[in-house]
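In response to reviewer comment 3 from the previous cycle, which asked for concrete evidence that the modeling workflow produces usable outputs, we include below a single protein chain processed end to end. The sequence was submitted unchanged, and the resulting structure tokens are shown without manual editing.
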Amino acid sequence: MSERRELYRSTNGDAWFLGREPSNGQAFVIHQPNAPSGGRLTHIELGDFLRNEPKGPEHQALLRLIGTLVNVPPYA
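The workflow returned the following structure tokens.
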């Protein structure tokens, strides 16, 4: 079972999560469509996810999360 953290939830109920496989540490994005769309989970490799167009709010949420990993003083 992968570990996951919610990145973004759209108004139509779709959800995106950052997932990590505990056995090997591999990270990926999980997309869970809303129930009327079938709700079937999709695992997407991080590079593929970030290359996808168009860039939606789920992409911005992942980039903001990645940005929190860097502690840079102001005006560095």
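The mean pLDDT is 90. We consider this sufficient to address the reviewer's concern, and the full set will be provided in the supplementary archive.
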